[in-house]
Each structure stands twice: as C-alpha cells, then as structure tokens.
Design goal:
4 helices, seven-stranded mixed β-sheet, globular, 162 residues, alpha+beta
C-alpha cells in the first residue's frame, strides 16, 4: 500500500490541477450568463417620481402617449367612479374633460413590496377643474412593477384631502 501512495497522491494532484485550470480557461456549459446591471432603489425612486410627474403633465396637456408608455396593460385606476382599466383611462385623457392650469406633487414616500414592486404615495395639488368642478388636493398612491426590466404603473388611486 505504501508503494502506491505516491502514485495516488500524484494522480489526485494532477486531476485537481487540471480541474482548476479547466475552469480558468474554458467556461463550462452550466456557467450562468452575466447578470444584467441592477438599478439601485434610489435610482428607481427618482425614475418613478419623474414618471409620475410626466403622467400628471400629460393629463394636464391631454396627451395620452405617456399613459400608453408607462401604464401596464392590465393596470387598474381607482377613483370616484369605480375601477377602470388602461383603455378607459386613455379614453378619458383623450376626451379632455379637465382643464388644468398647473399642479404640484410633494411628500413622496416609497413602500417596497419586493425588488420588483413598489407603492409610492404622495400629495397632489392641481389648479384646475374637471367637468366644471374645482379639483381638491388629493393623497395619491401608485403601484409600480418591474416587468422585463421596464417599470410600469400597475395601479393608481386618489383620495381627496377634504
């Protein structure tokens, strides 16, 4: 047995050496692809605020294009009239029943569900009317979800502050 020990040790060292050198020179078929760079939560939060403001600006300007871009196809809007989907929202924007002079959004807070979903809450104050009625300040919330690397609004609701 003692005479085979140097042979066994040499064989094991050779196998270990070739295994390590193989890993260093050739990727194995099981090697996972490089992960996509991740965006930090602060970056996501800045983008969500920017997109919320852009959606309010689009509402003010009666421009449905940003809503087509940033609203999920299966999104839900919750308001005084009940729950509506993206198609209804786009019709309402195009109909232009509101006259908005200006708006201000403030007091943003983020409530993370997981790395791919966040609820943002904020206060919205608009100087304008809808169907001839003055707009009250609102507390709003939107749920944003990451779908295939794109952050989309999934839900939105507003509650008057008075």
């Amino acid at each position: 047995m003692k005479k085979y020990l140097p042979l066994v040790v040499t064989l094991l060292l050779t196998l270990a050496s070739s295994a390590f050198s193989q890993d260093a020179t050739k990727p194995t078929p099981e090697a996972s692809p490089k992960p996509k760079p991740t965006i930090s939560r602060p970056q996501i939060q800045r983008n969500v605020i920017k997109n919320e403001k852009a959606l309010w600006e689009a509402w003010k300007n009666k421009d449905p294009k940003p809503f087509r871009t940033w609203i999920a196809g299966d999104a839900a809007g919750i308001g005084e009239m009940g729950v509506s989907g993206k198609a209804q929202l786009l019709k309402e924007i195009a109909a232009g029943g509101c006259e908005i002079k200006s708006f201000e959004l403030s007091e943003f807070k983020f409530h993370w569900i997981d790395n791919d979903a966040v609820v943002v809450t904020y206060k919205g104050v608009a100087d304008g009317t809808c169907a001839g009625n003055a707009l009250p300040p609102v507390w709003a919330s939107s749920t944003w979800v990451n779908r295939g690397g794109r952050w989309l609004a999934m839900t939105h609701q507003e509650t008057p502050t008075h």
